[in-house]
């Protein structure tokens, strides 16, 4: 009888970035899980760890019965199914319920082909990622964007000659962090306070390692004070992903302004913009849907059938 499957997991360090990036270049991934920045930023709140074995990258989150893994990332000449089998055996040996999250349709198809009757696939709508056509976010054309354009024009006219957009550099990271602190204080009493606290940790982690992570950001000043910022990176060869975006909710049109200006200045060369998931938060879902995504990056939870 074989012993317990041992996979050597560890925390994510900055020096691991080239290793992760090499795996993520093997296929055209569309999801946030396939970016080093997201995994590195959220590793403390979500208890993310990683391991590499036989040219397969494993990523898990949480502890014990509450943990889940995302599908294995395979390198050149490695086998996705062997990675899946090793993960499944690990869960069995440790007595934990098998759970994969963040399973995209492409990964689900490979899992189904391996064993059509073995798994249950449950859509995880709260974690679908919203993908938009870049030119739609820039042009805001037609009736479906009328309200967005009205809010943007209101902001521009209300603060004419008193606002400016600028790229985020290390010189203004402290100012951006101060804006995030103000935003957090305005929202800290909400029901999802734990999630907001985790997001704050993630933002601080990115700001702390800005250059090493290769982050791109933009900010808006009003009366020389930063009141909104957005942070992202290239996800694949034609898609940018927005990881974080904060704006003062009391200023009408500011959200539309940072959204628009960041895309215009940083991502106009791309085809798509991924603005990640809504986490099931009603207001956030309404906001993301109102920008008319061209498609979703669908996600499934995968469990074993009885």
From TrEMBL:
InterPro entries cross-referenced by the UniProt entry: Acyl_CoA_acyltransferase, LPG_synthase_C, UCP018688
Organism: Megasphaera lornae
One Pfam entry name: LPG_synthase_C
Phosphatidylglycerol lysyltransferase C-terminal domain: residues covered: 32-300
This protein's name: Phosphatidylglycerol lysyltransferase C-terminal domain-containing protein
